[in-house]
Specification:
The protein is α+β, with helices and mostly antiparallel strands. It contains four helices and six strands. The structure holds zinc ion (ZN). Zinc ion binds next to helix 3.
């Protein structure tokens, strides 16, 4: 079995291609540190089914807050890693989100054994937009890893 990579390849450290589509923001070194923080948490705390996704949030003051997904037997009660990380940012930090990323662990039967950046679920898009409408989310695009404004990921959010 191929070992799991805890670091993240610096695929986007090079200057962004000139033809990067509108709205895509190239990653910075700080963004790669954010991904590495999420990978490190998942490497330490991964448990099949119970803890399969980790997230990292960078607040406006530069501090990083990590979280781990909490699986539950009743699937809809599961708590996303982003929510755990944001709770820490609120309780221990300034409660802001400048950038966020989530990474997933491969399932036991998957051939690719690398941790991978995963887009936030719809509920987390709503949560991040509610609390940090200017936040950027790191996602995997066809061009590689990029950041997108959360508004772009949720153009028509739920409102009541
Ligand atoms: Zn979520």
């Amino acid at each position: 079995m191929k070992p799991i990579r805890l670091d993240h390849p610096a695929v986007s450290v090079a200057p962004p291609p000139a033809d990067l589509p509108l709205g895509l923001i190239p990653l910075t070194d700080a963004d790669h540190e954010l991904i590495a923080a999420a990978n490190a948490v998942l490497g330490r705390h991964y448990r099949t089914f119970w803890h399969t996704v980790a997230a990292a949030i960078r607040s406006k003051d530069g501090r990083i807050w990590t979280g781990i997904h909490i699986g539950t037997t009743v699937g809809r009660l599961a708590i996303c890693a982003e929510a755990v990380a944001f709770g820490r940012a609120v309780l221990e930090g300034d409660g802001t989100i400048e950038a966020a990323v989530a990474v997933r662990h491969p399932k036991p039967d998957e051939i690719d054994r690398e941790l991978a950046v995963v887009s936030p679920c719809g509920a987390c898009r709503e949560m991040i937009l509610d609390h940090a409408p200017e936040a950027a989310i790191i996602v995997m695009a066809p061009e590689g890893l990029v950041k997108l404004p959360v508004r772009t990921l949720l153009p028509l959010p739920y409102r009541r």
